[in-house]
Amino acid sequence: MKYLRNDDPELAQMAADEEKRLENTLNLIAAESHCPRSILEVLGSAFNTKTIEGYPGNRFHAGCIYVDQVENLAIKRGKTLFGAEHINVQPHSGTSANLAVYFSVLNTGDKVLSMSLPHGGHLSHGHKASITSRCFDFSHYKVHPKTEQIDYDQVRKMARSLQPKMIVVGASSYPRLLDYEKMGKIAKEVSAFLLADMAHLAGLVAAKVIPSPVPHCDFVTFTCYKTMMGGRGGVILCKKRFAKRLDQTIFPGCQGTSAVNLIAAKALIFKLAQTDKFMRVQKKTLENAKALAKNFKEKGYRIISGGTDNHQVLIDLTCKKISGKAAEESLESAGIILNRNVVPEDEENPGKVSGIRIGTNAVSARGMGKPQMDRIADLVDQVLMNPEKIQVYKKVKHDVLTLCNAFPIGMEWSK
Ligand SMILES: Cc1ncc(COP(=O)(O)O)c(C=O)c1O
User: Fold this and answer.
1) Is the pTM of this model over 0.85?
2) What is the tens place of the pLDDT at every residue in 157-209?
3) Pure H helices in 25-93
4) Whose CA is nearest to atom 5 of ligand 1?
5) Which atom of ligand 1 is found nearest the CA of 98?
6) CA distance 186 to 180
7) Which residues line ligand 1 at a C-beta cut-off of 6 Å?
8) Which domains does the chain have, with CATH numbers?
9) Cβ atoms within 10 Å, residue 64
């Protein structure tokens, strides 16, 4: 950071503080992970300079010899990794990727069936606060009130009566496996396109520790910075027959120049995703989530859907008489970072919500395993059961630091 320290010491200090914060706290945010240092290097590399429009071999600016190689490499590696017929590596984000899919095959006003946000879905799946709901006519399926899992019979019923042009399967806070095959059959029955949004799950899918949506879906979108452990940005996979429409919808349709440093980071993480280290992290991520769910259950917490099949554990804190917001804030003051989360049929004030979402991706990337999950569950419980007891928070913060020091960021990756 020597150049940054020279040009802007104030900002350099913030970057150093952030690095220290990450190192010294337990990151349980399901939508983040610690990426390999090589990802940070390529993000800050010379690839940041180049302005590109169009696709390799058909650009609108000169000087693309090396960036064409980079994009082709990302395309080749991404297609192989996920077994996709076509890939577009240019989306700036998961939301841009979803928007491009919608606009590539839908007309404004077309019907789309997706998961309700309070039941696990994402803003970009037609939530009223998202521009997607102003462009298309979304209806939402929910989880079953008893099992808190997707009720595929209900989805089928809704699909038959609504006759949507597209069905979306994928979520931000759904701890269970998604049955892409069943969704594929439902979509076929009603002649709808099927989009799987695996933003949260891409790393687990890449490591083949959970099933892939690719064989069953017309489109698959994902982000590279959650379980995928890469840089930021989105990716779209699709069947060959949609390739041309999709590429045109990304550029020139809804994006201009693309971020070459992000594309380079995508190429890199697609290579690293085939290594034993990556697989080990993803396997641990799953095992750790199961261990946490079991631990919290034994401590009397209510786990949404009764458990987990992925990297997330969703906890309803209603029976503990603490809101999600209060839990998030207390835990942060003790060095444990997670986010409050709405739970199905949440009756709490929308600013406070009733739940918390715990992700094991970042702690698993640090190399933590089952013994550390037992410790983490204890520490979280101590904070939540002792509201405003500063002495408890201080002790937990100290224990968090000890745990973090034993598992420095990057240690697992450098093994
Ligand atoms: C399921 C899902 N889709 C899309 C997105 C959006 O990604 P981005 O924030 O990169 O636009 C997210 C992000 O949290 C997500 O969880």
Assistant:
1) yes
2) 999 999 999 999 999 999 999 999 999 999 999 999 999 999 999 999 999 99
3) 37-43, 65-82
4) 94
5) 4
6) 10
7) 31, 93-95, 122, 124, 170-172, 197, 199-200, 223, 234
8) 40-272 (3.40.640.10), 281-414 (3.90.1150.10)
9) 21
